[in-house]
Each structure stands twice: as C-alpha cells, then as structure tokens.
Specification:
This protein is mainly alpha-helical and 128 residues long. The protein has seven helices and no strands. The chain starts with 6 loop residues before the first helix and ends with a helix.
Length: 128
C-alpha cells in the first residue's frame, strides 16, 4: 500500500523480499502468536472466573436453583468469550507490530543497524 501496489502484488513482493533476505527463518521461529493466544485464553478464563465469583457473591440465589444452573454456565461462557475477544483485539496490534518489524528488517536492515545497533547485532548473530 505504501508504494501504491494492489494487495495481491504487494503480498507477492513482500513474500519474495522475505525469502530473498533470509527473514523466512526468523518468521518460522516466531512464537509471539502462540504467546498472545495463550495470554488471551488466560484472560478469557479469568473473566469467566470473575463472572462466576460475581454470581456467587451477589446473585447467590441463582446457584441454589437447579433450573438456573444452565443460565449460570451460559453467563460464565459469555464472560469467557468477551474477555478472550477483547484480549485478541488488543494483542492484534502487537502481532501487527511484529510483522511490520520483520518486513522492515527485510526491506532495510541498515535502518535497524543505525537506530538499534544492539538489537541488530543480536539478530545478526542468531540469523546471519
């Protein structure tokens, strides 16, 4: 988009650039997506737990009624889904930043060398 290309052409050019510069190995070793997903799951579980604690502390009559146990489970699932999705939306910007860093490193590694020489050296030692 920066260079005025269509989406498909820009994606092809980016993939070619990444393969030519050897950044493909870094992307294969990238674990940030797994970490962000596990964090989102943890936030979802915590939101479900807080939903259950809310029912237990303030709406205790729902726990004693046999007919409302399904309602409690649905409420906990809704709390989980809302917490999970909110965390996914927020961490998506982190994931985009990682992808941008990989593309920027492939396109102009000298810029990283000038601005962050210590980080560039660590990356160069791991993936020459």
């Amino acid at each position: 988009a920066i260079y005025g290309k269509s989406y498909c052409q820009a994606a092809k050019d980016t993939w070619t650039l990444i393969k030519d510069r050897g950044i493909e190995a870094i992307i294969n070793d990238d674990l940030i997506g797994n970490v962000l997903t596990m964090g989102s799951l943890l936030i979802g579980v915590l939101c479900g737990l807080f939903g259950f604690l809310y029912i237990h502390l303030f709406l205790n009559y729902l726990l004693q009624d046999q007919n409302s146990s399904t309602l409690v489970i649905v409420f906990i699932i809704i709390c989980f889904v809302i917490g999970f999705m909110m965390c996914v939306v927020i961490t998506d910007s982190v994931s985009s930043g990682v992808s941008t860093t990989f593309v920027a490193l492939a396109e102009d590694p000298d810029a990283l060398r000038r601005t962050k020489p210590v980080l560039f050296e660590r990356i160069r030692q791991q993936w020459p």
